[in-house]
Amino acid sequence: MKKKISALTLSGLAESLDRQLPQYQCGRCGQPDCAHYAQALATRQDTPDRCAPGGRALAERLAAMSGMPLSPDATFDGGVQCARVVEEACIGCTLCLKACPLDALIGAPKFLHAVLPMLCSGCGVCIPACPVDCIVLEPAGREWTDDDAAAARSRYHARLKRLAEAVPVKQRRTEKKVGAVETPDEVRKRAIADALAAARARRSGSTKKSV
Q1: Which of 122, 100, 124, 101 is nearest to 113 (CA)?
Q2: Cα–Cα distance, 158 to 151 (Å, whole number)
Q3: Largest separation between any pair of C-alpha atoms in the chain
Q4: Other beta carbons within 10 Å of 120
Q5: What phi and psi, each to the nearest 5 degrees, are found at residue 199?
Q6: What is the DSSP letter of 182?
Q7: pLDDT tens digit string along 142-178?
Q8: To which H or E segment does residue 85 belong?
Q9: How many CB atoms lie within 10 A of CB 94?
Q10: What number of CA atoms fall less than 13 Å from residue 5's CA on the CB side?
Q11: 41, 50, 84, 182: most buried by Cβ count inside 10 Å?
Q12: In a 3-state reduction of DSSP, which class is residue 1?
């Protein structure tokens, strides 16, 4: 009984910590997303100052909630940023769309992509995915509110569900037979890894051609 109570308490703490996070889902804390960071903090496997976008005020709240001390060398972001696609350089590859954890980019193959400013957190995940370096970060000129965080959390989980459902039926059947069905988190990681691999391949090809 004690173990069950402890598990429930731990789950509740992780959920409370997750609700405090800005929900950028950027992975800069070293965890796959905000929920994983909250879980690591609840189990005292991480420190409360790893969320650079959240700022020092958030770190102090997380420290109070988790009972974990702040690191003396913690650094935080200066303010909310927003991504912008440099129109003349965009080649319409869709890699940034696949990488964005919040569905803040729109576009289609071989067509100009664009950022939806009110959805973009400025996390920067799209930048390494771009093979032509046509995405820049600029000051957003606004605050990232609790409503923004709640909406971002909802969009992120909707995206995970969509990615999981997009796995080909044949692949799902094969994975089911061997007992290796991908979780939504694994689907997200694979999508980002594929985007980065494709970007590196494109860059390598461009370099060879120029030589």
Answers
A1: 100
A2: 11
A3: 68
A4: 23
A5: -65, -45
A6: P
A7: 999 999 999 999 999 999 999 888 876 556 555 555 5
A8: strand 81-85
A9: 18
A10: 2
A11: 41
A12: coil
Distance of alpha carbon 187 from alpha carbon 175, whole angstroms? 13
AA letter at 168? P
Question: In this structure, what token pair is assigned to residue 162?
Answer: 């969509």
Which amino acid, one-letter code, is at 103?
D
Q: Which of 109-113, 114-118, 188-192 has the lowest mean pLDDT?
A: 188-192
1 is written with which tokens? 């009984």
The span from the CA of 36 to the CA of 41, in Å, is 9
The distance of Cα 101 from the centroid of its chain, to the nearest Å, equals 5
In 3D space, the residue among 40, 184, 60, 202 whose CA is nearest the CA of residue 128 turns out to be 202
Q: What is the pLDDT of residue 166?
A: 81
Sequence-separated contacts (24+) of 201-206 with Cβ below 8 Å: 202/93, 202/131, 203/131, 206/131
